[in-house]
Design a protein that fits this description.
Helix 1 packs parallel to helix 2, helix 1 packs parallel to helix 7 and helix 11 runs parallel beside helix 12. It is globular, with a radius of gyration of 22 Å. The protein is built from 14 helices and 23 strands. The longest helix has 13 residues. Helices cover 31% and strands 25% of the residues. Bound molecules: ligand EPZ. Ligand EPZ binds next to helix 1, helix 5, helix 6 and helix 12.
Length: 426
């Protein structure tokens, strides 16, 4: 088993280049299958979720070439087959195969997804969308079968809840449906705009992505093209929070500052300096931070994916902060681990109450999910002594490309070491 060993107390300094967005990549890759020709995507991140998707597509017969900073996907040789539950279960975003295969073949048979343990993660809105387009959805022994008796027909679909996954999945399925599909109360995340941009470059006719009403006029054919993925706003936010937490001075390169506004605004409220340039953001920490309240909501609100790293930072803000996650009510498994490091945090319902101003000390902690892992890395970087040992790196590897290399480049004392698990009564 590998562990991270972090010695805290060093302010992060210098520049870090942000990678392509994980939550775009896991949608762009299946979207490329819709084309009747090769699609090249530049700047895809080398992270575990992308690697799993590459394996999934290869198992289905697609030609996939993943080089240093580009991937070519040719779905023409794709065959329709039930996905082996194993690999599909490792990746929640494998559910985008439903929309892509339904859009391509009018049929999809895929195992139910897996992914982070953030409490119940229903897919009822995805299914509601597919059924509205005329498909019949059955779920037997963990395999979802979605079949359209004829060609999918455009429909007006109102999403009860704002859902990134359902919005993208319905968009994928509707690209080649007969007629007009309107998605109302659609999610507005930048990743949705990124997928719509790729699909339109392939010849789709999608308008309104990024707003709460998306109109998709079905087309008959989609062609290969080239696309560059947007930067990862969650990876970027994690480094911004780490820069603030270590009272450092870090410039993030290859970002879209507008996508980071919810994080920048909150950091400024806390007392951090954030300076935007065209495609860079500079974060300068301060000695004293103000306690604040954070409430997560769909974009452009404060992202749920950053409430966990933000919790670590707020342990350094004198006074009481409250973080409320309005999207996932059970996304607090990092709190117990932060407590082991000396944090004073209480979870009540969907809120974490942080009594800040104390010091964190190194400890042995376990990452339970991707962003909980990010929170523990931030906490490890800000300890006033001791070494923090983090296990559960398989979660962190899902979403952070070259984490150790990037942190060491910023001056952090961090090592990733193989540890032989002690067994028996030694
Ligand atoms: C995406 O998940 C992201 N994952 C998540 O990031 C992110 O936390 C989430 O959006 C919210 O921003 C990817 O993009 C791969 P949702 P998704 O559908 O699409 C409920 C990370 O750390 N819901 O927007 O699955 C759902 O339970 C990951 O990178 C339904 O009730 O999220 C949640 O409470 C974690 N029925 C809310 O909607 C449905 O059919 C928002 O979920 C679908 C969702």
């Amino acid at each position: 088993m590998e562990k991270l060993f972090i010695t805290g107390g060093t302010p992060l300094q210098g520049k870090v280049t942000i990678s392509g967005a994980k939550n775009s990549a896991v949608a762009l890759i299946p979207a490329a299958l819709l084309a009747d020709g090769p699609v090249v995507i530049d700047n895809l991140p080398h992270i575990q979720d992308v690697d799993i998707y590459v394996e999934l597509l290869k198992e289905m017969g697609a030609d996939v070439l993943f080089e240093e900073d580009w991937m070519e996907i040719d779905g023409r040789a794709l065959t329709l087959d039930v996905m082996p539950n194993g690999r599909v279960k490792k990746l929640r975003a494998s559910y985008y195969l439903w929309g892509a295969l339904l859009g391509k073949f009018g049929e999809a048979r895929v195992g139910l997804p897996g992914g982070c343990d953030l409490g119940p993660r229903p897919v009822d809105l995805h299914i509601k969308g597919f059924e509205a387009l005329g498909a019949v959805v059955t779920n037997q022994n963990g395999v979802m079968t979605i079949k359209a008796p004829g060609r999918l027909r455009g429909a007006r679909i109102y999403l009860d809840l704002v859902s990134v996954g359902a919005t993208i999945n319905i968009m994928l399925a509707a690209t080649k449906a007969e007629g007009l599909t309107i998605i109302e109360n659609a999610a507005r995340e930048p990743e949705i705009v990124d997928v719509a941009t790729l699909l339109n470059n392939m010849g789709a006719n999608i308008k309104g992505a990024g707003t709460d009403v998306i109109r998709i006029q079905g087309v008959d054919q989609l062609r290969g093209c080239r696309h560059t993925i947007i930067p990862d706003r969650i990876e970027a936010g994690t480094y911004m929070i780490a820069a603030a937490a270590t009272r450092g001075d870090v410039t993030l390169e290859n970002v879209i500052p507008k996508h980071l506004e919810p994080i920048s605004a909150k950091l400024r409220e806390i007392g951090v300096t954030v300076i935007n340039e065209d495609d860079t953001v500079r974060v300068i920490g301060a000695e004293n931070y103000r306690a604040v309240d954070v409430k997560t909501s769909p974009y452009p609100g404060f992202p749920t994916d950053l409430q966990q790293p933000m919790t670590a930072l707020l342990t350094a803000a004198k006074g009481s902060s409250i973080i409320t996650d309005n999207i996932y009510g059970a996304r607090f498994r990092h709190v117990d681990e932060l407590r082991r490091m000396g944090a004073t945090i209480k979870v009540e319902g969907r809120s974490a109450l942080i009594d800040g101003g104390g010091k964190l000390l190194g400890a042995r902690v376990v990452a339970s999910d991707l962003r909980a892992g990010a929170a523990l890395v931030v906490a490890g970087l800000m300890t006033e002594g001791g070494v923090t040992e983090i296990e559960g790196l398989e979660h962190i590897d899902r979403g952070y490309e070259n984490l150790v290399r990037k942190l060491r480049h910023l001056g952090a004392t961090v090592r990733r070491l193989e540890v032989v698990k002690r067994t028996g009564h030694q």
